[in-house]
Amino acid sequence: MFSEYREQIAQLKLDDAHFAQIFERHDALDAQIKRIEAHMEPGTTLEIEALKKEKLHLKDEVYQLLLKAQQA
To answer: pTM (2 decimals)?
Structure first.
């Protein structure tokens, strides 16, 4: 996610606990969605949809924090 911001992400994960938390939650959701879609973990289509919406919200928040940090 956001490979062009790799260095900035690494720094923000160290400096900003909130950023680190939402970034890690995004990654955890991504892994959970993949497990459900691969039938390695139980889940319904509605559950997957809800997880994807939450993941997208977190991705948007990560991006906004990246832009804010870039402007500082």
So the answer is: 0.90
